[in-house]
Amino acid sequence: MAQDIIIDIRNVSKHFDGKVILEDINLQIRKGEFVTFLGPSGCGKTTLLKIIGGFKEPDQGSIYLNGKDLTGVPPYERPLNTVFQRYALFPHLDVYENIAFGLKLKNVPDKEIDKRVRKMLKLVSLTDYEQRDVDSLSGGQQQRVAIARALANSPQVLLLDEPLSALDRKMRLDMQIELKEMHDKLGITFIYVTHDQEEALTLSDRIIVINEGRIQQTGTPADIYNEPCNSFVANFIGDSNILNGTMIRDRKVNFIGHDFDCIDEGFGENTPVDVVVRPEDIYIMNRNDSCQFNGVVRSCTFKGVHYEMFVDTEEGYEMQIQDYNAFEPGTEVGMLIKPQDIQVMKKDCVCNSFDAEVLDENHVTFLGGRFECKIPREFKAGDTVCASVAFDKVGLMDYADEGELVGRVRFPLYKGDHYHLEIVTAGEALIYADTQEVYDNRDLVAISIAPKDIKISAKK
Amino acid sequence: MTKKASWNLPYFIFLMIFVALPLVLILIYALQDGQGHFTLSTITRFFSDGDSLATFALSLEIAIETTILCILIGYPAAWILAGRSFNKSAVTAALFILPMWVNALMRTLATAELFNMLGIGLGKGTLLCGMVYDYLPFMIYPIYVSLSKMDKSYADVAEDLGATPFQVFFKVTLPLSKPAIWSGILMVFMPTVSTFAISEFLTNNKIKLFGTIIQENINSSMWNYGAALSLLMLVIICLTKVLSEDEKVAV
């Protein structure tokens, strides 16, 4: 229903220094919703919040509030208030004056201010703290004052920029519950930014997962957790086993060397897919006939509520399993996965393919590198062709002079028996690579590809 | 005496000889008449001497005016220097710092010559001009430091809460830089109230300041009265210090 939409983000893009911060963001937020922007640091979530608050202008697109375009409206004229990451309480004012700051600017009568400030203090459980110096408050108390200060103006939407990240864990959990209660009590729209998936799952009505300036998935916490739409979301939210698989036909998928029944349909036959199985969804037991696959426990760690085990399967895959029962390392165990716990996802791509130019009979150039390869007769120098390289044929070297191209590792993903990496080249192009070696986010690698592994075909 | 404490000894001796002893001597001289008898007559002489009182009042007036002018010129200058667009401009910073490289007396003499060349008569106007010129950096510097270190999120929060840029300045930025303004006031007011060289050069001795009288008395060997006047000035400076202490001075 259109009249329910309070904030409408249309085609918002933001670039900085030639880098994409946000790319064509479209999002509608309903009145009274608790929406969370979730993503790793640098994904653009805070920039999006600042654009909504008016502290940054988008390069393209607009934000609409109740159908009104906010482009060019300065922050002080927007009926939104922000709780900043660093609380930034005014040190020259006491608690009362901090909360009353916005109301005084609006020339609200003193009596009204007094009533409102006291109500806010009660809301954040800081009654009797009126005259306290803000420096004398604990981190949690400062955070409460910051929230009270933002809420005192009765904003239509409250923006929260990682407000709990500076608090210790216990305090953070308490504040999460309080924030949720405040939201229920006040009924105003909350837009919350965090990199903490647990926090997002606890608080939100709806989660917007953002990565690399793009919305990856939008949905309720349960949707996002149970049905991640791609391997990034699956990896970022909660623990998971992400594996390469093949959709044999509807409701039948093969991975880790076995066929499994599942509930997914419509992928076609023999289609390569990504498969996600949450660690708590794998049943582990002593070997018996009902097990679908077998393995040996490699490690077992007590995690409070459950035990976390890593099991090496007979086919050479590593599975992460959480269970209330412990199996000692070395134990031979059997495992079982129920059809509804297998989440099948379409692969973004199954093979690297680049636009390449033929240089001579046995050289092509792509992504700014020069590669040797066998070129079919029909192509001549100067032709534009398609060069494809399988993920596991991309060779990674540690030293820049060992390869034709240099790139930075992004988002390494463990897939049970190998790592799947995204490598961003200097020219911002993406290469996917499968490797046995362990690389960290932002590691610098050189890329070399053997001549026989580059397949040249006509450009589509 | 521990090993570490013994390191303090040279400093302690220095402090005694060059700081404590002169202060004690000033006190002793101030409370003596010419014949070495203890008396309060030097002090009472000052309060019954109309000329001295008038000079004293003028000195205070000049110092206060200089300080106010320094704030009015220095704050915007510091604001511009601390602003984003000028932050990296070494040229702008150098323009303010460069005069400091020249000896203060040379600068004052040069300023006097400049006024002569321009045909501007030396008097109170030129005196204030010279004072502000000499002491402005002492006002700019603490304010500049405070503004450039100030967390930008305070301004963001204020704007978020509905403050126009004008209100952000008067409700947040200015109050937060108040301690720095107080440091600036101390650093400008204290030396200006006691200066004599600038008034001598920039008014051709037409205007006498309190510092000038002290210097004249001591030059004409009237040590006791000179010391008494110095003591009075110390009291004044102490008073400003104590008054500003209430304002959480950040030096």
Write the layout of secondary structure elements.
The complex is a heterodimer of chains A (460) and B (251).
Chain A: E1 5-16, E2 19-30, E3 34-38, H1 45-53, E4 60-65, E5 68-69, E6 80-83, H2 95-105, H3 110-123, H4 139-152, E7 157-161, H5 169-186, E8 189-194, H6 197-203, E9 206-211, E10 214-219, H7 221-226, H8 231-236, E11 241-249, E12 252-255, E13 258-261, E14 271-277, E15 282-286, E16 293-302, E17 307-313, E18 318-323, E19 332-337, E20 343-346, E21 352-360, E22 363-366, E23 369-372, E24 384-389, E25 395-397, E26 405-414, E27 419-425, E28 430-435, E29 444-448, E30 455-458
Parallel strand pairs in A: 3-8, 3-9, 6-7, 7-8
Antiparallel strand pairs in A: 1-2, 1-4, 4-5, 9-10, 11-12, 11-14, 12-13, 14-20, 15-19, 16-17, 16-19, 17-18, 21-22, 21-24, 22-23, 24-30, 25-29, 26-27, 26-29, 27-28
Helix pairs in contact in A: 2-3, 2-4, 3-4
Chain B: H1 3-7, H2 9-30, H3 41-48, H4 50-82, H5 84-87, H6 90-97, H7 104-118, H8 124-149, H9 152-160, H10 165-176, H11 178-194, H12 197-203, H13 210-219, H14 223-245
Helix pairs in contact in B: 2-14, 4-8, 4-11, 7-12, 8-11, 8-12, 9-10, 11-14, 13-14
List keywords for this structure.
heterodimer; A: 460 residues; alpha+beta; 6-stranded mixed beta sheet; 8 helices; B: 14 helices; 79% helix
Question: Please, could you describe this protein's structure?
Answer:
The complex is a heterodimer of chains A (460) and B (251). Chain A has 460 residues and is of the alpha+beta class. Helix content of chain A is 18%, strand content 40%. Chain A has helices at 45-53, 95-105, 110-123, 139-152, 169-186, 197-203, 221-226, 231-236, and strands at residues 5-16, 19-30, 34-38, 60-65, 68-69, 80-83, 157-161, 189-194, 206-211, 214-219, 241-249, 252-255, 258-261, 271-277, 282-286, 293-302, 307-313, 318-323, 332-337, 343-346, 352-360, 363-366, 369-372, 384-389, 395-397, 405-414, 419-425, 430-435, 444-448, 455-458. A six-stranded mixed β-sheet of chain A has the order 6-7-8-3-9-10, with helices on both faces. The longest helix of chain A is centred in the middle third of the chain and has 18 residues, at 169-186. The model of chain A has no long low-confidence stretch (mean pLDDT 90). With 251 residues, chain B is an all-alpha fold. In chain B, 79% of the residues lie in helices and 0% in strands. Chain B has helices spanning 3-7, 9-30, 41-48, 50-82, 84-87, 90-97, 104-118, 124-149, 152-160, 165-176, 178-194, 197-203, 210-219, 223-245. The chains are: A alpha+beta (460), B mainly alpha (251). Chain A binds chain B through residues 53, 55, 74-77, 80-82, 84, 86, 88, 90-92, 101-102, 105-106, 149-150, 153, and chain B through 151, 153-154, 156-164, 167, 171-172, 175-176, 178.
